[in-house]
Amino acid sequence: MLGRDHLLLSVATVSLVLAPLFTLYPNAMLVAIVGTAIGSLVPDADSPDAAIFHTRVGGIRGDLGTVVNSIGFLFPAFGYPTKYLIYKPSVMFYDRFVFTDVTIGEHHLGFLHSFLGLGTATVLTGLYLVLVLYVIGLFSLRYIGVFLLAYLVGALLHLLEDSCTRSGIEWNYPFRSWTVRGQLVTTSKFEDTVYQRSFLVVVGGVAVALFFLPSMEPQISPLVFGLVGICLGVLLWATFTRFVANCEVVRP
Question: Which residues pair with 184 in a beta bridge?
Fold first, then answer.
């Protein structure tokens, strides 16, 4: 999928949980949204001209584009360190010192599009953040934890979204025992993105509803609506992957 699809779908999905909690923890929820946005683009740091290397995400216009691109300066601030301080050194380390029967190598939809790659990137990003924020006097264990959790969820949603495309994803790369692949085509043409756009409208609409529900039903804890958001997110994505994208597990 394109960068804009990854960002919007991931943030909208996570907003199903964040929206009803916003009035309780506004600062933490904003950090989580930023973490999700960055995480949703990070796996494509293995591609030469990915959205994570630019301060603007193409194809998002109007007020939404203004909001999204207001944090655009953070994308390359994470994109380039991920590529040169995490991705490339990690691939070299694993190939030279860890794996003897398989080779990771550097290529798109490889290491950073796997459980191993995302786990490595999340841990190392956390270490870099702790160091940088401590040096500049902005260290907060709570907010770093919120950011990293959202970052990881955004990145995992990126993999789920790519699993809906015809290229598919080898989630357990480099072991290549199975691939999840769907039928969606990745282009910028409207006819090829109509399913993603329609799904975004549905998820976004539900997220907006969950934002207002706690004020309409004050006797119910916002945490309950957060749990409802998780259930709805799982249900919506299960429906999309199975009946729209027609995803299947392909074994060699």
Answer: 165
| Residue-number span of the structural domain to which 214 is assigned | 3-250
pLDDT on residue 177:
79
Contact 228, 17 (CB under 8 A): no
Nearest to 13 by CA among 180, 246, 216, 235: 235
Task: Check residue 188 and give its pLDDT.
Answer: 76
Q: List residues bridging with 180 in a β-sheet.
A: 169, 249
d(CA 144, CA 38): 14
Q: Is the model's pLDDT at 231 over the cut of 80?
A: yes
DSSP element (H, E) containing 181 = strand 179-181
CA distance 185 to 192: 6
124 burial type by CB count under 10 A (0-12 exposed, 13-18 middle, 19+ buried): middle
Nearest in space to 3 (alpha carbons), one of 34, 66, 45? 45
Distance of alpha carbon 43 from alpha carbon 137, whole angstroms: 29
Domain count of the fold of the chain: 1
The closest alpha carbon to 204, from 13, 66, 2, 29, belongs to 13
SS3 sequence of 137-170: CCCCHHHHHHHHHHHHHHHHHHHHHHCCECCCEC
Mean pLDDT of the chain: 93
pLDDT bracket for residue 136 (50, 70, 90): very high
DSSP 8-state assignment for residue 221: -
Stretch 83-103: mean pLDDT: 95
CB 119 within 8 A of CB 3: no
- Percent of the chain at pLDDT > 90 equals 83
